[in-house]
Every structure is written in structure tokens, then in C-alpha cells.
Amino acid sequence: MSHHHLKLPPYQKRRGHASSLSGKKQPVLGLGMSGDQPYPVFPEGVQPLENQVAGHTFEQGTDILGLLKNLDDGSILKPAGKVLCGVREIKFYETIQAATTEKDLVPLKEFIPGYKGHLKLPIDGKPVEFIKLTDLTHGMLEPCIMDVKIGCRTWDPLATPEKRKAEESKYQACKRNLG
Q: Where is this region: Disordered (predicted)?
């Protein structure tokens, strides 16, 4: 019996559509920052993502951006980052979204968030390119999320030597040969 197409419902209760910024709870911005500390000025209807488990997070005193949440449609806004990396990532999502018959690409659609395009938003008055993705946890009270690395190479084939060196130093226990 194949379990490839087995779909399980989320093991979470859904919550109402209320924004956490409208109540007393402030978003956690990552690395110890809390909502009462200064952070960039966001456009109306956008706030930091509260349940981010991977990738860049907001860091006080730097210009590093983390993931944002679009309160209008619940989507995730991921900074496109460096120009070439952003272009490659946008191309990746567009290729997967457009795939209809490619046997290696179509199954990936099941495991990645839906791509909703890309846009520029003013952050602290400066235009920043974002990739717009479906939030797979939208409406869940307490989603359980994990970031899984598969394989021993954790860098893009086009990564710079500096990026490769930084990635090689991570996850050492997971990269050793076990067989």
C-alpha cells in the first residue's frame, strides 16, 4: 500500500482571524527581541512572523530582515535577499508552480508552500523585494514546525566559497558517514 498520497488533517485547532497586534501580545522577533523593542517600520497589514523556525530572523542593531506575515491574506513574505539569490529562488518557485508533467518536480508541490508571486514593500522607507508564499500553518493555534535538513550538503550548487565554508561548519554530527 502506497502512502505517497496520504493526506492527514492538521492536528491543530483553528483559531479566529484576530491579529495578535490588536491585543496585548506582541510578536517575538527572534534572538531575544520582543515587540516592545525597536524594529523596522512595516507597511500597514504586515507584521513579523511569530512562529519562524528557520532562516534569517530579525536581529536588533542590524539590517537583517526575517519573515513577515501579511495580515490581509495570511501569506508569508520572505525577503528575497541578495539579488542573485532572490532571482534564483523566485525562479525555483515559478518552475515548481508551473510544473505539470515533470516526474521529479510535480511531487515537490506537495511539500513546499504555494508560490503567490513576488512584490516590493517599503521597510523603513526603503523598497525590499519579497517572495510571497502560502502559510501552511495559517489559522493554527500552536503549530508544530521543524526544519529538516536532508543530505550532507546544505548549500546551493552556485553558493560562494564563503557560503560553502560557513555551511560546512554547521551540523557536523549529522554529516559524518554512518555506513
A: 1-29
pLDDT in tens, 30-57: 433 444 545 678 889 998 887 777 776 6
Task: Using alpha carbons, select from 36, 21, 30 the residue that is nearest to residue 66.
Answer: 30
What are the C-alpha distances in Å from 17 to residues 9, 21, 42, 62?
19, 12, 20, 32
Amino acid (1-letter code) at residue 43: P
Rg (CA), the chain: 18
Burial class of 44 by CB neighbour count within 10 A (0 to 12, 13 to 18, 19+): exposed
Q: Indicate whether this model's pTM tops 0.85.
A: no
Could you tell me which of 55, 48, 52 has the C-alpha nearest to residue 69? 48
58 three-state secondary structure: coil
Reported in sequence order, the residue ranges of 76-152 that DSSP labels E, i.e. its strands, are: 76-79, 115-123, 126-133
